[in-house]
Write a structure and sequence with these properties.
- The complex is a heterodimer.
- Helices cover about 25% and strands about 30% of the residues of chain A.
- Chain A is an alpha+beta fold.
- Chain A has 4 domains: about 190 residues, Immunoglobulin-like (Sandwich); about 100 residues, Neutral Protease Domain 2 (Neutral Protease, domain 2); about 120 residues, Neutral Protease Domain 2 (Neutral Protease, domain 2, Orthogonal Bundle), CATH 1.10.390.10; about 100 residues, Immunoglobulin-like.
- Chain B starts with 6 loop residues before the first helix and ends with a helix.
Amino acid sequence: MSFFRSFLLSFFLFALVTVKCFATTSTQSVLAPSPAPVSTLASQALSERVVAYQIDARFDAVKRALDATEVLTYRNLTSQPQDTFPFHLYLNAFQPTSTFMKENRHEYPTFKWEDKFKASAEIRALEVVGMGDLTSQIKFIAPDDGNLEDRTVFQVKLPRPVAPNESVQFKIAFHDQFGEVFVRTGYKRDFILGGQWFPKVGVWWQGAWNCHQFHLSSEFFADFGTFDVKLTVPRNEVVGASGVQLAEADNSDGTKTLTFRGEDIHDFVWTAQPSYRVVEDYFTGSMGKVKIRMLMQPGHMSQAARHMRIMKETLKRFDEWYGPYPYRQITVVDPAYGGGQRAGGMEYPTLITGNATWWMPEGVRLLEQTLSHEFGHQYWYGMVATNEFEDPWLDEGINSYTECKILDDIFGKDRSLMDLWGITESDSAEQRNSYRAAADLDPISRFAYHYINGVYYYDLVYGKTVTVLVTLEKVVGEETLKRAIRTYFMRYRFKHPTQEDFLKTIEEVSGQDLRWYFNQAVYGTEVLDYEILRADSDRADWYVKDPPAEKKGETLYRTTVLVHRKGGFIFPVDVLVKFDNGETVTGHWDGRERWASFTCDKKAKLVSAEIDPGNAVLLDKNYFNNSYTTKPDTRATRKVLYYWTWITQVVAQWLAWLA
Amino acid sequence: MTEHRGLLCEGFFRLKNYKRVLWWMFIVNLGLSMLGAFPAAISVRMATDHSLHARRLVDSFDLGAFSALASDPEVHLFSTTGNSLYFIGAFSADASSCEVNLYSTTACSLHFALLFMLFSLFLTGGVLEAYRTNRKLATREFFEACGSYFWRWIRLLLMMTIVLVPIVLLGMALLKHTATLLKDSPNEKAAFWFFLAGAGLIGFLLICVRLWFDIAQVRAVVEEDSRMLRNLQHAFMLTFGNFPTLFWMYLRLVVFGWIAFGLGLWTWARRPAAGFEWTILLLELVVLWGFAMRLWQRACEMVWYQRRVL
C-alpha cells in the first residue's frame, strides 16, 4: 500500500473514532463516573444502576393530587437493541374496571366500589431525548389477562432502537390523583402515602421484558438505580421518604421543597402528614451508623420505644446473621388509623410502614411481627430483588422465615408471637397453622396472581414457605441453613435471582442433593402427614396355656409399632419408642412405603411411640397423631371439657336473664 | 318481715333462708353445661388422650396447638351444623370409629344453654313464692308453684321479646356507627368511647326492661293475677313511678356481680400455670356468685313490693 493511501486510511480511521467519541445524539455512549454515594454507607455503587430517576413533583394537599416531571435515564444492559419500553402505572389499578379491582370483586363478592378509592396516574407528555415527543405512541397493554380496560402497564415504541450499553432518556410529565387508601397507597384525612406513584420502567429479565399488570395478590419488580426526587409540599407537612433528605427550602407560596436521594434502590416512596411526630435514634451495624427515623401518629407516642426496640433488635440480627444493612437510614412510618392502616404493614426500599394501635398489649406481639417482617424486606426484595410477581415466596416466604427466627431469638421460641395471661403462641406455629389450611392447594412456586385465592396465597407463600424452611433445618441443620441464606444474600444482593438460584445455593452450602425435598415442598402440593397406627406390647409366651404371672423386668414382650404415611410427601423420620424400664429405642424410617412396622423383643412394655420427637418436621400436618401412649392422659381432654363447660355455664347464665 | 332492715339486707336474708334454690340452679347449670360440652370433649379426646403433643395444652395453653386441634377436620371442634342429639350416641360408640363431625359441638352447647334458660323460667314461680311467704317451702309446694306460674312466664317472655326488638335495633345501629367511626373518625379512640357510651345506654335500657318485667312477675305472684297484659301495665306504672329506688337497688347488685366476675377473671389470668383444680374452684365461684346476685335481686323486688304496695 502506498504511503498516501496509508495516510488516508489512518486519517479516516482517526476521524471515525474522534466523531464517535464526541457524538451527542439521543444516546449517551460515555458514562460520567458516579459521585460518591450519599445515601449508603458504601464508598462506591453497590448495584449496576440500570435506571436513574430524577423527579420533580408538586403535591396539592387539598386536591390530594400531584404534578411531576420525571427524567428517567435507562442504561441498556440487555445485550440487545431495545426500541420498545414498557412502564408500570400502578395507581391506575384503583379504578373499578382494572384487573386489580376485578380480582378484588371476584375474591370478595360483597365488595362495593366507592368513588373515594379512585386513583389515577395520567401521562401528560412523554418525550425521548433526541427522538421527540412520543406521547401519541403510548399504548396500554395487558400482557397478563388481556383486560383492555386495565391501564397499569403501557409501552412506548421508539423510532429507533437504543443500542446495547447505551442510554436513553425519557422525559415524562404526569399527573397523579390519589384516592383514599384502598391498599398501600393513598390518603386518609391529612395523611398521604405516595407509593407506586411514578411511571416505572419494566425489567428486562431472562431475555424479555417483565412488566406485569397490577394484581390483587402481586407486588412489584424493578431495576436498581438512583432516585433524585424533589418534592414540593405545603410547609406544615412532615415528610418521610426513601433514601436520605439532602435539602429543604421554603418557597414564597407557603410550600417547601425537599430534596431526596436514594442510591442502589429500585423504588421510591414518600409520605406526609402535618401531625407526624418524629423520633430518631441510631443503630451501629458492621458498615456504620444507621439512622432509624420514625414518623409516629401523635396518639401512639407511648409505643415509640416499643417500635425502636424491635427495630434495633432486628437490625442487629440481620447484620450478624445475613449481612450488613448498607443504607444510611431506615424510615419507619406509623400510618394514620382507621382506613389509613391499609397503608400499614408494607415495605419499600429504606422505608417501611407498621401497624400500631393504641390498645395492643405488650404480650401480643403483632407490632413486633410486622416491623420485623417489613424490615426484613429490606433484604428480601430490597437488596435481593426477586420478581415478586413470579416468585413471591422468595421475598415473602424467606422473609417470614427470617422473621420467625428473629422473634424466636428475641422472645423465646414458644412465645414469640404471644405471651399473655398464660396463653402463648409462637410465630412459626401460627405460620404452620395458616399453611395447614391450604396444604394441598397450590405449590409455592406459583405466580402470585395464579393462586386459588388471596387468602390461600397468603397461607402458602408466607406460611408454607416458613414451614418448608424450618423443616429443611432438620435435613441440613439450622446453622447450615443460616449459612446458606447468608451466602444467598451476599451473592445475590443488588441482583434479580430466581428460585433455582436460592435452592442451588442451599444445595451448594449444605453439600447435599435436596431435589427430592424441593420437588415436593416447593414445586409440589404433596401433604406430609405421618401417624402411629398401632403401638402395643404383647407377651412373647402368649401361646402358653397357663403362662406365669407378668413380672416387670422378667416377662418378655414383643413390642410392635406400626407407622403410616397418610399424605403423599415422603420424608425420612425418626421413631422413638419408650419402655417402662426407662429404655428408649430409636428407629429411622425413610417414608418411602406407605407404612412400616418396627418390632422389638424386650423384657419391658411399651410406654409410648413417637414419630419425629421434638416436632422438627413442621410440615407434618397433624402432630396429634404422631404419637401414641399406652396409658391415656386425659388431662388435655378434661381441660378442654372444663373450659367449654364453663363458657356454656356463663352463656346459660346470661340467657337466663331473659327469665 | 322485719321493717327495720334495709331493702338489700332483707332481701339477703330471704335469699339466705331459701338458699337451696341457689344450689339447685347452680347444679343444674353445671350439669346441663357439662352435657353441652360433652360432644366437644369426645371430639377432642380422640386426638389427645393418647397423644404426647396434648401436653402442650396441659402445661400452659399453647394457642397454636389448640387452634391446630380445633381446625383438624377429624376433630371439628367449632362445628355448628348437625343434630346435637347425636351426642348421646357418642357415649357408646367406639372411639376409633366415632364420626364426631356428624354432631355439632357449638350448637349442642347452645341448646343446653337454652334449656337452662327454660329451667330458670320454670323455677321463677317457686322462687318468688318462697320469697313472698318468707319461709322454706316443701319441695312439693315449691314445684307446684313453679308449675302454676310457668305459662304466665312464657307469655311474659313473649311480650318481653317484642319490647326488646327496638333495643336490639338500637344495638345494631350502634355497632354500625362504631364501625364507621373506626374507619373515619379523626380521633382514634372515638369509636371505643362511642361504643362504651352506647353499650352503657343499651345496658341501662335493658335494666329498665328487666326491672319492669321482674316487678310484673312479682305482682303476678303476690296479687295472683293471671292476666299478664294488665299485670304488665300495672307493673310499668309501679316500676317507673318508683324508678330511682328500684334502679339503685338493681344497679348495686349488677355492679357487685360484674365486679366479682371481673375479679375472678383477673385472678384466673394471673394464676400459675399449674393448679387446675384451683382454677375450677375460682371460676365456679364466679358462676355461683352470679346466680346469688340474681336471686338477691328477686328477693329485694319481692320485699320492696310487699313494703310499698301492701
